[in-house]
Amino acid sequence: MYMMKLTQREYVQQLKKGIDTVLIPIGMLETHGEHCALGTDTLIPREFVKRLDAILGKRIMMAPEIAYGHSWALAPFPGTIDVSQRIFTDYVRHIGEQFFHQGFRHIVLLNGHGGNISALNEVSECLADLGAYVLTIHWWLDYREQIAAIAPAVGHAGEDETSCVLAIDESLVDMSVAHHHQDTLSRKIKSKKMGLRIFPHGNSGDATAASVEKGERIYQSLVPLMVKDIEELWEFAQSE
Ligand SMILES: [Zn+2]
């Protein structure tokens, strides 16, 4: 169920019925190559949530998305709205704490953006310290083997992400400006505008190989794995 659509009364009824799992999608607003929508990292988790809700919606409160995250490397590009890691970490942690104090002992953080990873590690530890059971899913990393079998030229707005956006709505992608770029720069060195060198067109991987069909296959193969991970979270909490 979607929290945004519930009245306060309906929400309280759900809590009384024992619903104690919240899923918080976390995305980003940033450049995704010249071809993909700026909201890619929020749009993809949104699609996963829609599909997860159809399966587990009676047991999970789907919270609204956190659509702004941290993106140091892509901050020099127009369209990237970067929140500092310190502020972002505190913000997400506070939201998680609010849910925990309202009765959600299972918290799922469904992340769509690489720059959020360090912050979410800290958030998950803080929430676990409170007594919550926290599952953090970075979809493109946690299921990378399954993704690579479908769309091997992965990357930022690469074959995988671009396919996933195409499968949502083809009008969100302009394939006429999709690029293939293999990034080889060292991450050991940091400089202010290194993102412009790492991602000359704002993307990595081969976006030109993306297709609607590949995106649909990614959703179909990953959703059951996410369901399994969420069920494992419940089993884990029950076993303690
Ligand atoms: Zn992305």
TrEMBL record:
InterPro entries: Creatininase-like_sf (IPR024087), Creatininase/forma_Hydrolase (IPR003785). The keyword Membrane does not apply. GO terms for molecular function: hydrolase activity, acting on carbon-nitrogen (but not peptide) bonds, in linear amides; metal ion binding. Gene3D superfamilies: Creatininase. Signal peptide: none annotated. Its cofactor is Zn(2+). GO terms for biological process: riboflavin biosynthetic process. Keywords: Hydrolase, Metal-binding, Zinc. Belongs to the creatininase superfamily. This is Creatinine amidohydrolase. It comes from Alicyclobacillus tolerans. The lineage of its organism: Bacteria, Bacillati, Bacillota, Bacilli, Bacillales.
